[in-house]
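Hey all, quick one. A colleague (J.T.) asked me to put the zinc ion job into the tracker so the inputs and the structure tokens live in one place instead of scattered across chat threads. No bug as far as I know, just bookkeeping. Sequence used:
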Amino acid sequence: MTLVLAIESSCDETAAAVIEDGRTIHSNVVASQIDLHRRFGGVVPELAARSHIAAIQTVVSDAMVPVEGDWKALDAIAVTRGPGLVGCLLVGTRFAQAAALASRLPIVGISHLAGHVYSAWLGDVELEPPFLALVVSGGHTDCIMLHEHGRAEHIAGTRDDAVGEAFDKVARLLGLPYPGGPSIQRAASGVSPDAYQFPVPHLPDSFSYSGLKTAVRHAVDRLPDGARNAVGVPEDPSTVAELAAAFQKAAVMQLVDFVARVAEERNVDRIAVVGGVAANLALREAVAARFAGVHVSIPPFALCTDNAAMIGAAAFHHIHEASDSNVGFDVEPDLLTFA
Ligand code: KG4
Ligand code: ZN
């Protein structure tokens, strides 16, 4: 049995978890900073880093409750080393490295993206590679083939905005609160998505979301005089709802069309949808409808958004790399590793 303490602080969630053999969650503690960043409409890196400093000790202590705070009960420490915001990554890695030194535990740095891919493996005991993973979050829109544990192929990424970023930016255009994904989903609920037609790019090897965002802006700009308030947001809630629904439909369609093409080309029979945007109900419904004969894995909400349990799951396949001689490894804000 391998018991790992995993720590995640790459963006705006301070998280720690104790995970057994990559798949059994003993604890999964997340301190979200959503309230802190809401009034700015997005994550402010310096505030995020300072908030991690304030929260990390408590979050780790809470995660250690199942082992009664006993560091000797652990076999290793895993921590997100990238990608992410540099100040935020530094808080988690330096805390983890100090803890590893103090408790003489081996430590391993883990990719946040591998964490998202492995959130599906963690959430579904029947899921084993090879599987196709769609990582959709505030920072990423990636299609990955996990051929085997530790070996991934990056099939496509976004050439501009990430899909979650598009949700967040369009929510601002529509005067909906941060984070934009849940707000847009709520506004669009039960509303016809066909009042507006937005573009759905079908690029051969990438995703693109900036054109969709611009199309929503143009639709808002074209509203008749008096339909927008002083800051340019549509006044009429039903107009907001129709724009949100049409945007959500186009955003989801691009993802599902792309995955469907790749799945067919490669004869894939297992698909995972992970990351914060995987919480989106329209995406879940579209995936369920389109991939009826395929094993589809979408983790529960708590594993979709940033968390440390997924880092512990990914770490299980890198546990042989954990060492107490490399405690000073650096963070890698631009890391592009998916396994
Ligand atoms: O994975 P995550 O927690 O953090 C990153 O690594 O980025 O994802 C956060 C993103 C945000 O852009 C948020 O708007 C989006 O996930 N999101 C959603 C939903 N819930 C969260 N997007 C669409 N629909 C949702 N229900
Ligand atoms: Zn993430």
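Adding what we noticed when we looked at it: Residues 112, 116, 137, 275, 306 surround zinc ion (ligand 2) (CB under 6 Å). The mean pLDDT is 96.
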